[in-house]
Design a protein that fits this description.
Elements lengths: L4 E3 L2 H8 L6 H13 L3 E4 L1 H12 L11 H14 L1 E2 L4 H13 L6 H10 L1
Parallel strand pairs: 1-2, 2-3
Helix pairs in contact: 1-2, 1-3, 3-4, 5-6
């Protein structure tokens, strides 16, 4: 049975861009399998912003410490291999509903925004 669509989390995007990551192979295999089963793989503006942040942040501040040029290459690869799930007023309204209804606070507001986009 085919999966209609899948929003790829930023942590998955980070792992797919780093061949040295211990989970790279499993992530690569799963994404290939999903695509092979007909799933449409999506990313959001927020995913790319989070990816860029983690990739270009210095290693001593828990980042990957890569150059802007390398981050740009990885973002372009994601953009060419997946579909952008665009932001809209409806996404914003759903995000607002979710954070109030479920009392979301702190860093989880970012994940709630991804849930709203779905």
């Amino acid at each position: 049975m085919a999966i209609a669509s899948c929003l790829v989390d930023t942590n998955i995007l980070l792992r797919i861009t780093r061949r040295s990551d211990p989970q790279h192979k499993v992530v690569d295999t799963v994404l290939a399998r999903l695509a092979g089963e007909g799933a449409i793989l999506y990313f959001t503006h927020q995913n790319i912003a989070e990816l860029w942040n983690a990739m270009t942040r210095p290693i001593e501040r828990n980042g990957l410490g890569v150059s802007v040029g390398e981050a740009e290459r990885e973002a372009r690869a994601i953009e060419s291999g997946m579909r952008l799930l665009p932001d809209s007023e409806a996404v914003y309204q759903e995000w607002r509903r979710l954070i109030v209804e479920f009392g979301v606070s702190g860093v989880q507001v970012h994940d709630a925004r991804l849930a709203a986009a779905m």
